[in-house]
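User: quick one, sequence for these tokens?
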């Protein structure tokens, strides 16, 4: 299987703060990888380097065969292939739900309007929100906004999806619906997914592989069963014992 994402000796700094330390990581096409670890461990930073939202200071980052820091690399081309769902939904407040989804395929992919509408409605149906197509973002709940944001990312037909703590801004009763949609999306396609989350039960259900980070380093990288049942790293063991007890 070929790599979708490859980090080679990647370093990332914010001023003097060393945010990502010697990151070496390969994620294969079609894998669903979950990133976990304590707050401030570098998980979101790592995810955000994959589509160039965060720059790296040294090393190589290859995304779908393209060196993300190469002088000739078109970062917008990479972003077309890499969808991202943020903690906050970033929907256009002045456009209805359907128009939020149709906008990028219309502008970037130059998609035929009828095809775009049909496909956007199908995506809304997929996330359980076909009946909200003509609602404005202010008229739907946070969980529904996040599901619209997922549909909007899928509308660009990405080869890879990044989910940066997609439930952290939601009320508890809305979390399950969003996680159910992410689980469905990752199971239905050969898309590569990288998911930053604190939801351990969800991680156990959806992941092929779990990566544990702390202090900017990858301390453990294993398949989910080995990680949750027999973590080898002491810091990972402590983290799991605290988080699963709660």
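Assistant:
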């Amino acid at each position: 299987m070929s790599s979708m994402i490859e980090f080679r000796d990647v370093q990332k700094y914010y001023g003097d703060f060393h945010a990502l330390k010697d990151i070496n990581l390969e994620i294969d096409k079609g894998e669903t990888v979950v990133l976990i670890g304590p707050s401030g461990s570098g998980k979101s930073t790592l995810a955000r380097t994959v589509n160039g939202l965060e720059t790296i200071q040294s090393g190589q980052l290859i995304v779908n065969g393209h060196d993300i820091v190469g002088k000739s690399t078109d970062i917008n081309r990479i972003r077309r292939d890499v969808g991202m769902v943020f903690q906050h939904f970033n929907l256009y407040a002045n456009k209805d739900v359907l128009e939020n989804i149709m906008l990028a395929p219309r502008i970037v992919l130059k998609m035929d309007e009828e095809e775009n509408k049909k496909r956007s409605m199908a995506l809304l149906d997929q996330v359980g929100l076909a009946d909200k197509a003509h609602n404005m973002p202010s008229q739907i709940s946070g969980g529904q906004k996040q599901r619209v944001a997922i549909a909007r990312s899928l509308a660009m037909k990405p080869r890879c999806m990044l989910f940066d703590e997609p439930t952290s801004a939601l009320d508890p009763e809305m979390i399950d619906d969003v996680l159910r949609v992410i689980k469905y999306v990752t199971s239905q396609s050969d898309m590569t997914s990288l998911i930053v989350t604190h939801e351990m039960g969800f991680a156990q259900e959806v992941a092929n592989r779990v990566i544990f980070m702390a202090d900017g380093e990858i301390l453990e990288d294993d398949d989910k069963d080995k990680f949750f049942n027999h973590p080898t790293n002491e810091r990972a063991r402590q983290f799991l014992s605290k988080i699963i007890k709660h």
